[in-house]
Design brief:
By secondary structure, the protein is mostly helical. The chain has helices at 33-60, 66-73, 78-84, 90-109, 114-117, 143-161, 168-171, 173-197, 211-217, 231-237, 239-259, 264-282, 284-287, 291-294, 300-313, 316-323, 330-360, 395-398, 402-416, 427-451, 453-461, and strands at residues 5-7, 124-130, 136-141, 224-225, 229-230, 373-379, 385-391.
C-alpha cells in the first residue's frame, strides 16, 4: 500500500519543518491497563490453549467439550489428564534439535540460487522496509530454497531410503510440543535479555517500563546475531512454516496407516495449505514489507508464537482428520476447493497490486487504469522526512485490508474441508478473524500516528476495512 522514497528538501511543497507529524510512530511506548490485561491473559492462557487442543485429540477424539464436561462432573482431575498425556522425551528432543539446526544451516550457509533459475522469483540479498529509526536492513531471502531442499529430502526418504517413517511427526507430536515450548521460551527470554545488555540497534529498541509487555511484544525491532542471523526472519519463516507442509504430510501418512486410505478432505487440506505456504516463500521478499517484519518487535508474541502456536494450531485440520476421516461429497469438495482458490486469488492479487504500485512508484496500471492514490509524508526518528503514496485503486479501493478478506476466505476453506461434525477444526477461522481484525486496528493506529492528517484523507477515500458496506 505504501511506496516510499526519501526526500531531503520538500514534501508536497513543504519543508521538513512544516510537515506536521508525530514525533514517534510504531509500537506503543506506554502501556494502558487494557493492553496489560490482554498481555497477561495471553501469557497465561495461550500455552494452555495449545495443550488443551492437542490433548483433546490425543485422549478425547478431538472433542472440545468432553474434557471440560468430565472435569465438571468430577470424573477426572487436571492432574490425571496431565498424567495420561505423553511427556518430554529425549528422542523428540534430538529430533527437534536436529530440525532447527538443519534449518539454521540452510538459512545461514546455503546462499540462494533459485532466483537465478526461476523467472519472476525474487531471492538473494534484499532490502527490508525503513525502520522507525530510519534504517534499512538487508536480508538473505532463501526460504523457497530451504523448503525445496527439505521436502526433496523428505520425498527421497519416502520413496527410496526409508531412514524414518513418514508418520514420525505425528508419532512424536506431543513430546515435540514440549521441545517447541522450550525453544519458544528460550529464544523469547534471550531476546529480552539481549535487548537490555547488547541490543543490535538501540535506536530501534522500545522500553515501556512494563516487564510483561516488553517480554511479550518485544523490545528490539530487529535483533540479530552478527550480520546474517535475523531473529524475526528466521523464526517467522523457517522452522515453523517449512514444517507446516511436512506436518500435514505426516498426518496424511498416518491416516493411510490407520484407516487404509486417504480421504479427499485430507487432500484438500494438504493442497490448499501447501499453496499458502509456497506463496509465502515465493513472495518472501515482499513479506519483508509486512507487519510482522517491518512493524512488530521481536518478543514472546513472535518467538513463542512461531515455535508453538503456528505449527500446532495452524495444522489442527489435518490432525482432526487423522482421528475423524471425512470423505466429502463431490459438490461439497468442489465448493471448498473453489472457496480456497478464490480466497487465494483475492489474497495474492491484492498483495500483488500493492507490490506493483510500490515498485513502480505509481507508474503502473491496476484493473486497466492508472492508479489513484493519496500523497502523504512521515518523519522517522532520525529527523528525515519521507514521502509515501497510499493506494486507493483496485482491491485497495474496495477496502483498506482486502488481502485479509482473501486470507479469511482461505482459512474458512481449510475448516470447511473437515465437514461439520466437530467444532475443533473451526478454531482456525475464529482465531484468524480475531487476529486479522486486531491487526487492522493495530495497523491503522500506527498509520494514523505515522501519517497524521494524510491518513485521515485516506480513510475518507476508502471507508471500509474488510467488507465493503459492513466493516
Amino acid at each position: 500500500m505504501f511506496s516510499k522514497r526519501r526526500t531531503q528538501h520538500t514534501v508536497n511543497g513543504k519543508t521538513p519543518e512544516q510537515v506536521e507529524q508525530p514525533e514517534q510512530w510504531g509500537r506503543a511506548w506506554e502501556v494502558d491497563w487494557f493492553s496489560l490485561v490482554s498481555v497477561l491473559g495471553l501469557l497465561c492462557f495461550a500455552p494452555f490453549i495449545v495443550f488443551y487442543f492437542v490433548m483433546a485429540c490425543d485422549q478425547y477424539q478431538c472433542s472440545v467439550s468432553q474434557p471440560l464436561e468430565e472435569l465438571f462432573r468430577g470424573e477426572v482431575t487436571p492432574t490425571s489428564i496431565w498424567a495420561r498425556t505423553a511427556s518430554f522425551s529425549w528422542t523428540a528432543a534430538q529430533m527437534y534439535a536436529a530440525w532447527v539446526a538443519f534449518q539454521a544451516f540452510l538459512y545461514l550457509c546455503v546462499p540462494d540460487v533459485l532466483h537465478e533459475l526461476l523467472p519472476g522469483y525474487v531471492g538473494g540479498v534484499q532490502d527490508g522496509a525503513r525502520t522507525p529509526a530510519g534504517l534499512i536492513n538487508k536480508y538473505e531471502i532463501n526460504g523457497l530454497q530451504c523448503w525445496v531442499i527439505t521436502h526433496a529430502l523428505w520425498l527421497a526418504n519416502v520413496l527410496y531410503f526409508n531412514w524414518f517413517s513418514p508418520t514420525i511427526i505425528f508419532d512424536h507430536w506431543i513430546p515435540l510440543m514440549w521441545c517447541a515450548n522450550i525453544l519458544g521460551y528460550a529464544v523469547s527470554t534471550f531476546a529480552f535479555v539481549k535487548a537490555h545488555l547488547f541490543p543490535t540497534n538501540s535506536e530501534d529498541s522500545k522500553f515501556t517500563g512494563n516487564v510483561f509487555y516488553d517480554y511479550m511484544m518485544g523490545i528490539e525491532f530487529n535483533p540479530r546475531l552478527g550480520q546474517r542471523f535475523d531473529f524475526k526472519l528466521f523464526f517467522n519463516g523457517r522452522p515453523g512454516i517449512v514444517a507446516w507442509t511436512l506436518i500435514n504430510l505426516s498426518y496424511m501418512a498416518k491416516q493411510q496407516e490407520v484407516h487404509g486410505h486417504v480421504t479427499n478432505s485430507m487432500v484438500l487440506v494438504n493442497v490448499l495449505q501447501a499453496l499458502y505456504v509456497l506463496d509465502f516463500f515465493w513472495n518472501e521478499a515482499w513479506y519483508l514489507k509486512t507487519m510482522d517484519i517491518c512493524h512488530d518487535h521481536f518478543g514472546w508474541y513472535l518467538g513463542w508464537g512461531d515455535c508453538v502456536w503456528l505449527p500446532y494450531l495452524y495444522t489442527l485440520q489435518g490432525l482432526y482428520l487423522v482421528y475423524h476421516p471425512v470423505q466429502l461429497p463431490l459438490g461439497h469438495a468442489l465448493v471448498v476447493l473453489g472457496l480456497g482458490l478464490i480466497g487465494y486469488y483475492v489474497f495474492r492479487s491484492t498483495n500483488h497490486q500493492k507490490d506493483l504500485f510500490r515498485r513502480s512508484e505509481g507508474n503502473c496500471s491496476i484493473w486497466g487504469k492508472k492508479p489513484t492514490y493519496i500523497e502523504s509524508s512521515y518523519r522517522s526518528a532520525d529527523g528525515a522526512v519521507h514521502r509515501s503514496k497510499l493506494l486507493t485503486s483496485g482491491f485497495w479501493g474496495v477496502a483498506r485490508h482486502f488481502n485479509y478478506t482473501g486470507d479469511l476466505m482461505g482459512s474458512l476453506a481449510y475448516c470447511a474441508a473437515c465437514g461439520f461434525g466437530h467444532a475443533l477444526p473451526y478454531f482456525y477461522i475464529v482465531y484468524m478473524s480475531i487476529l486479522l481484525v486486531h491487526r487492522c486496528v493495530r495497523d491503522e493506529h500506527r498509520c494514523s500516528s505515522k501519517y497524521g492528517q494524510d491518513w485521515k484523507r485516506y480513510t475518507n477515500a476508502v471507508p471500509y476495512r474488510l467488507l465493503p458496506g459492513v466493516f
